[in-house]
Design goal:
This protein is an alpha+beta fold. The protein has 8 helices and 17 strands. Strand 9 and strand 10 form a beta hairpin.
Length: 341
């Protein structure tokens, strides 16, 4: 559930050293030769507008000692709050927390209902998440480093950035964050995520697996879901179902695409296929899929700008039914060794 306990506290260890913002004092990394500059990659970005509080993970490009460019994806919650605040003629209060509890980082990476990230973290952890309210009104969790400031109406070039695919993302005009305060522990630990590395892929991909599972469960008897490593743990899913009708697999394909809008390819298999074994998946593709009957294709639809083959995020999505035909199951059943003796 999304309703774990959250409580406010008056202080945190990140307030041991309070100073004017100076990002040059932090070991912010330029991870790859193609990057446009140093990037903060592991921060939980918390914003507050009225009663709404959102926590999300955004890449943050260093522009100066007290300025950052934030990649805000249109339609996501932070972008929505920013648009509302700027339309009202004000800047959006923000806090950037680095070195948080890993459960908080996972929750902030998950598509929860609006304003439920900290409650979800508490539910995952089984204990309350404590928040400290900053001078600008934003509540933040315990962390090693916290940067306080405002998302402004100013725009700056953000990128290039080597993202989850290991290829460079686009340069865009993105909002500038103006920092007003920097707070750290006495000897803070700076947490960085390697872009395109295992931790990055886990945080982007794994939170979608339960969303796909839940969506498919409404149309078929789903058993398991994985976003595969070869698909960057983001673009390719395999859905395992207990097939009851010939329509189940195609219903599962459509439900999976609805649950994860950036996904490009999905494959549906039977319960006897090990979805964690690429050889088993290839076996299902080789023996149970007939292209003229078992492929679902959606051309010129919204995918992800992270896909290098897309054009401004527009791509073609493919679903593959690699399940056995119910009326001829005997043809698809794999034999097992008879045993000794």
């Amino acid at each position: 559930g999304y309703d774990g306990p959250v409580r406010e506290t008056n202080s945190s260890a990140f307030q041991e050293v309070i100073s004017e913002p100076d990002l040059s004092r932090l070991p912010v990394l330029t991870h790859f030769q193609g990057d446009g500059g140093p990037y903060i990659t592991s921060a939980v970005v918390v914003t507050k507008l009225g009663e709404r509080v959102n926590a999300c993970v955004h890449r943050l490009m260093v522009l100066g000692k007290d300025r950052l460019a934030a990649r805000l994806v249109p339609g996501r919650h932070t972008h929505q709050l920013c648009q509302v605040a700027l339309a009202e003629g004000r800047e959006l209060p923000v806090a950037i927390a680095i070195g948080v509890d890993p459960v908080v980082l996972i929750a902030a990476s998950t598509r929860t209902p609006p304003d439920k990230e900290f409650q979800y973290a508490a539910a995952l952890r089984g204990s309350p998440v404590e928040l400290v309210r900053l001078e600008n009104g934003v509540p933040v969790p315990h962390a090693e480093i916290v940067l306080e400031g405002y998302i402004t109406g100013e725009r700056a070039s953000e990128g290039p950035f080597v993202d989850i695919t290991g290829t460079c993302d686009l340069v865009r005009q993105e909002p500038v964050i103006r920092l007003t305060k920097m707070m750290t522990r006495e000897s803070p630990i700076y947490h960085a995520l390697l872009p395109g590395g295992g931790e990055h892929k886990m945080l982007m991909g794994v939170p979608y697996e339960p969303l796909i599972y839940k969506a498919v469960s409404k149309v078929a008897k789903v058993k398991d879901v994985i976003l595969t490593e070869g698909g960057c743990n983001y673009f390719h899913a395999v859905v395992q179902i207990e097939k009851e009708t010939e329509e189940d697999a195609k219903r599962a394909i459509e439900a999976a695409f609805q649950a994860h809008g950036s996904m490009k390819h999905v494959m549906v298999v039977d319960t006897d296929i090990d979805i964690y074994d690429p050889r088993d998946l290839e076996f299902a593709l080789a023996t149970r899929m007939r292209a003229d009957e078992d492929i679902v294709m959606h051309a010129n639809v919204r995918g992800s700008t992270l896909d290098p083959r897309s054009v401004n995020g527009i791509t073609t999505k493919v679903g593959v039914d690699a399940t056995a035909r119910l009326d001829r199951l005997w043809k698809f059943q794999r034999v097992t060794p008879k045993g000794t003796g």
